[in-house]
Specification:
mainly beta, four-stranded antiparallel β-sheet, three-stranded antiparallel β-sheet, Immunoglobulin-like
Length: about 120
């Protein structure tokens, strides 16, 4: 079993548990540092609201993008995207969509409005 915890409010860490039949507990701590950490705070979606194309920037390393409609159905997706991508939204109905960005086992969701 693994638990994610925040150490001193700054950095996410993984706490691993190994339970035996004697109900003993072993905890191993591992700090997440290095190039596998993904910072989604730099991601921008412009223009938003959009009517023809939308540019998604600040992805950093290789990422997978999925655009989901309001009911959670996948409208379109792109894989192996680096840094930025421009996507055509002219075929999408007006409304609120969600852009799910996954990179290095970390994900974020951003809102996109299509007019």
């Amino acid at each position: 079993m693994e638990l994610l915890y925040r150490s001193n409010g700054e950095q996410d860490s993984v706490l691993s548990f190994a339970l035996t039949s004697n109900v003993s507990l072993t905890a191993n701590f591992a700090e997440n540092v290095g190039i596998d950490d993904v910072d989604f705070s730099a991601v921008s979606i412009t223009p938003n609201p959009a009517s023809s194309t939308v540019r998604i920037e600040g992805l950093g390393q290789s990422a997978t993008l999925c655009i989901l409609d309001g009911s959670g159905r996948e409208v379109c997706s792109r894989s192996d995207v680096s840094e930025s991508i421009e996507m055509d939204v002219t075929g999408m109905a007006r409304g609120v969509y969600f852009v799910r960005i996954v990179s290095s086992n970390t994900s974020t969701v951003r809102k996109l409005i299509v007019r």
